[in-house]
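[stage:ingest] chain + small molecule (flavin mononucleotide)
[stage:ingest] validated
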Amino acid sequence: MDETKEGSRGNAHPRAGDSDVYLLAAHPDWRESRVNKRLLAAARGVPGVTVNDLYAAYPDYAIDGPAEQERLAAARLVVLMHPIQWYSMPALQKLWVDDVLAYGWAYGPGGTALKGKDLWLVLTTGGQEEAYHPSGYNRYFFDAFLPPYEQTAVLCGMRFLPPLVMHGSHSASEQEVLDHVQTFAQRLGSYPDWPEIAELDAAPACEVPPSDRPDADDDADGVADVRHGMA
Ligand SMILES: Cc1cc2nc3c(=O)[nH]c(=O)nc-3n(C[C@H](O)[C@H](O)[C@H](O)COP(=O)(O)O)c2cc1C
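[stage:predict] done
[stage:export] tokens:
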């Protein structure tokens, strides 16, 4: 297999509406990937999953907001899959959030396009689980880095499903990587029949007051105000 091509194989611009799972895979350099590239290949083999390899789709960082919104609107589960970089998401994934989750569409007045959908994080880290501990070099439990993801979901009315995380991606054994990929594919393929889902509450309502917006008159047009940003 030509590993350099693995990440960008398939549709660079997937169509909306042919599945109810929309998976965004964001890896800045698939040639360097050990785990995410295998997760990506596994995701492509699961029926009903639309996969978007973000760095292949938008090498110029010019994200097609309306197309992304169409794919999101068609989905029931949105999956963000990426390596953790500087305790957060890769830059293009962050730009996608900035550009696509627009006021009046994803949140705020009339912003109900994502309400009732689920968000699932599939993350990898270089650091071992023990490093994410008050006595480790990352100083915090890994969960302490997740509230920005979780609150982004909740602000959009989405349920935040328990993330799937692989720590110590560089040092994990081959068998551990294979087992992880298998767990991931099994869960992706069996959504929404996950035991814990029935026990999750709907996202609590979060209203953004007009005073937190740059210009309240501009905003409530219900149209995707791509690139307006949050405040
Ligand atoms: C720019 C950059 C920043 C990174 N930041 C972190 C970090 O904050 N925490 C961590 O545990 N690993 C960090 N890593 C390591 C990656 O998370 C790790 O290489 C990746 O999860 C391995 O997955 P892959 O085999 O699919 O590339 C970073 C890597 C890069 C290149």
